[in-house]
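I had to read the description of the data format several times before I understood it. The format is easy to grasp once an entry is in front of the reader. For illustration, here is how one protein appears when written out as sequence plus structure tokens:
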Amino acid sequence: MRIENPAERKFYEIEAVKQNWSESQLKRQYNSSLYERLALSRNKEDVFKLANEGQTIANPKDILKNPLTMEFLGLEEKPSYSETDFEQAIISKLQQFIIEL
């Protein structure tokens, strides 16, 4: 993969190794802009740290974090979502959700 931004490239390299991503998983994460999505909710210092170290586990709750790509739900972009947000979007687009699975 050709990624111009060295920090972004390093992030994907680290995450691919840490998460044991296959080539298709890596492409999906890149095409879904995982780096940009994570960077939107962080300050510049944290983005630099993210690029150099990957996602770090600071407390037990972080172990459960798993960035999901659910662009097919058409939710507006927010830093975080509630379970109710997902539930309502999934119910309204149940057919597309089943196809995506």
